[in-house]
Amino acid sequence: xxxxxxxxxxxxxxxxxxxxxxxxxxxxxxxxxxxxxxxxxxxxxxxxxxxxxxxxxxxxxxxxxxxxxxxxxxxxxxxxxxxxxxxxxxxxxxxxxxxxxxxxxxxxxxxxxxxxxxxxxxxxxxxxxxxxxxxxxxxxxxxxxxxxxxxxxxxxxxxxxxxxxxxxxxxxxxxxxxxxxxxxxxxxxxxxxxxxxxxxxxxxxxxxxxxxxxxxxxxxxxxxxxxxxxxxxxxxxxxxxxxxxxxxxxxxxxxxxxxxxxxxxxxxxxxxxxxxxxxxxxxxxxxxxxxxxxxxxxxxxxxxxxxxxxxxxxxxxxxxxxxxxxxxxxxxxxxxxxxxxxxxxxxxxxxxxxxxxxxxxxxxxxxxxxxxxxxxxxxxxxxxxxxxxxxxxxxxxxxxxxxxxxxxxxxxxxxxxxxxxxxxxxxxxxxxxxxxxxxxxxxxxxxxxxxxxxxxxxxxxxxxxxxxxxxxxxxxxxxxxxxxxxxxxxxxxxxxxxxxxxxxxxxxxxxxxxxxxxxxxxxxxxxxxxxxxxxxxxxxxxxxxxxxxxxxxxxxxxxxxxxxxxxxxxxxxxxxxxxxxxxxxxxxxxxxxxxxxxxxxxxxxxxxxxxxxxxxxxxxxxxxxxxxxxxxxxxxxxxxxxxxxxxxxxxxxxxxxxxxxxxxxxxxxxxxxxxxxxxxxxxxxxxxxxxxxxxxxxxxxxxxxxxxxxxxxxxxxxxxxxxxxxxxxxxxxxxxxxxxxxxxxxxxxxxxxxxxxxxxxxxxxxxxxxxxxxxxxxxxxxxxxxxxxxxxxxxxxxxxxxxxxxxxxxxxxxxxxxxxxxxxxxxxxxxxxxxxxxxxxxxxxxxxxxxxxxxxxxxxxxxxxxxxxxxxxxxxxxxxxxxxxxxxxxxxxxxxxxxxxxxxxxxxxxxxxxxxxxxxxxxxxxxxxxxxxxxxxxxxxxxxxxxxxxxxxxxxxxxxxxxxxxxxxxxxxxxxxxxxxxxxxxxxxxxxxxxxxxxxxxxxxxxxxxxxxxxx
Length: 1016
Ligand SMILES: [Zn+2]
Ligand SMILES: [Zn+2]
What we know:
Blueprint: E1 3-8, E2 11-15, E3 21-29, H1 35-50, E4 56-63, E5 68-75, H2 86-108, E6 130-136, H3 141-145, H4 156-164, E7 166-172, H5 179-188, H6 194-198, H7 211-214, E8 217-222, H8 227-233, E9 239-243, H9 258-274, H10 278-284, E10 289-295, H11 297-305, H12 310-333, E11 340-345, H13 361-364, E12 365-372, H14 390-394, E13 404-405, H15 409-417, H16 438-465, H17 480-495, H18 499-521, H19 525-551, H20 562-585, H21 590-597, H22 599-608, H23 610-622, H24 625-647, H25 650-665, H26 668-671, H27 673-686, H28 701-724, H29 732-760, H30 767-782, H31 791-808, H32 817-838, H33 867-884, H34 909-937, H35 942-963, H36 970-1002
Parallel strand pairs: 6-10, 6-11, 7-13, 8-9, 8-10
Antiparallel strand pairs: 1-3, 2-3, 3-5, 4-5, 7-12, 11-12
Helix pairs in contact: 1-20, 2-19, 2-36, 9-12, 11-12, 16-17, 16-18, 17-18, 19-21, 19-22, 19-35, 20-21, 20-22, 24-25, 24-33, 24-35, 25-27, 27-32, 28-29, 28-31, 29-30, 29-31, 30-31, 31-32, 31-34, 32-34, 33-34, 33-35, 34-36, 35-36
């Protein structure tokens, strides 16, 4: 035990030399408490005390040798401010949200791997001595199988094989449909978790076993992104890789199918060279040899030209020829010994618009053709049923189609060459592909079942060891006795030569073991989910309390007694310690401590404000019921519209149309006819964007050019009007900045049109264009800071700078989006002024002379009004519009590599990802800056409105937390996860953006000595 039966404490009164008095508590820990647990307890108590009452200072001293924790509570003679400071609040907020965000990766996407199993191998001799695995990266099933208009195949050799000598089917992949998880499923037989993808492509986050590792020798040729991960995971020196350099993966200028020709040529010369190298020659003639040819050309061509292009199809033809040559070369090398098995498949497919990663059928359906030693010949059938209509389309109705899950290919390969099944494989051997005796099939299936069961046993023992015995609920259908009886029965069937019975029993056992694996894998899910939800609700409540307390006059300040707060603190500390203790004895991973302990300080902070809650409740009861009900109803509808817009972009159109009618509903239009009509028109214009198809599917460069010219026109007008009116707030320096920004818009427009032209003509990206692009990108972050800090000039300058970058990243109608959006934002700032007047809250300040730099000088901020909730809701709505206005960014499919062609054409996922994120962020920055302007011009402290925004987005996040799914189709699961990630990062992002917007609007860089500022 960690603690003595009774928590030994004694309270002493002490005094310091400065006259502070306090009480000291000694916590005596039990014999079992080691040094780490004492330190941990100290950290927990420290964490709690950082939230603790302001009139006390807490101090804890840990004495590990005596296993005691001394806790001193000093009573301060003075009363510091009651709420925590803004920096602390923001830090706490960021921390809390970061934990919430990361938690779902732990809850839903923890690594499924276990270690410590015994390798399992079929005892009978295998049919093949060697296996050749071709992976045509990014090859869609239908692209390979379909016939063109005159009934010929793009891959005549492979078509011939599936018609005359091999077996075929569709291999179903899982999300994420990316190269790395695809190859891991193929070669190691398990589905890698998403977190592993996030950890990097080339590094192995975990060691895993693979068919290559189990083979005697593996030689592999292909991309440096894929091959090293299997060589690195392999034990000993028997997996050899031959890669080209990352630089040659340039898909803009040269023909990408050269990547495949490279592989074929190198394999041929490798075999040629072995004739004069005796060691290599004998190694090649060993048993259990794997040759792996990774062909990246099709994927690269698909990204660059889309799967319906001539280039993609031409590349398929090249691969087909290459496979034919390699096959015949190998047959002659091995003297037609009939001991070679061949597998051709792909790691994932590709959408019509050249992307992959999500769960669309075009991405998850990949071809599988197997032939050679030990593989079944084509089976003629009269009818076969599949839900899709492909068979007819491909004219393959009469050849048996054998579908598999991607991970089933690993046991298939292992069984063909007779190596142990990869230890973590969850695949089931697809028996119908095998041309072998019933005995062999039954034995192989038995091996498969034992191998999966091994994982189940290790996982169960792990969970059992780390769970308190009275809390452990075993997986009932597969208890120890059940397992033994299953295995015994199967052995018996095999001995009695009842092979079919043995196989079906093995299949049941495999399914049960897999079910049990996922049962133990998700064992803690409910418990962790509850903890996170508790923390969520607690944090949101706390933010609401802070708003009510500091920004409204709804509550009177009541000083809670010291005694009460001490009791509260002790009880929460006690709860925190109990949780820590509970987790300690279960030896939970360290992240669990964070998830489970986080709600404690959060709820402590809430409970300290209990009097605010009581006050608020009393206040609310005094309101008329219809009014409060109506308010709640409108809030719910508003938030639901936002949630819905994540699923259906057109919901945003509905919302924007309601916004367009807002001045009419509230009678605002009587007051300001011009402003309100512009508002209505712009709302309606913006409402068109969510109805447009997702960005990138239909590139339209002329529209981008039009957007550039329109921006030039508008800025020209603005320049002319400010010259004409002899605006005293402008001087020559400002003119220069403005002029330079116009120049960069013009340059961007030129670069976009020129680059896309040159790429079309296959001339690659001109260096001059690339230099201009990067210069524009860098300068756009600095230029706005040079412009005057008056409201509209500054906002306009931010728009011009960001627009120049956005143009470079655009490929179609989306280039117009920031223009319309910022138009609406400009009017919004005016509209909020009108609304203030409408409610009689303020006199109209002159917007034209409003200066961001002096905004913080306003000493008298007004209190929050109910209308400010509407204001905050508008902001969140505009943010969501900025996100989904031009595409569904929750889906990887929206990321079209064509939009970064002005910057780079060499495939570099992280650089491209960064640029695409920038493209998403630009509309976001525009809205954030407008919101900053709304805050300061409506005389609110910049934090109060933002707090309401936090509450709105947190309620949304909680909504999506409950919508996170781990069942249903992979598309649904993927989407639900990305929604949650998106809305959580939205909150974190908005916090950062708020800071960035403040910086962008208020800071000014002085390049030279200037004339003094004109004060308002
Ligand atoms: Zn791939
Ligand atoms: Zn790809």
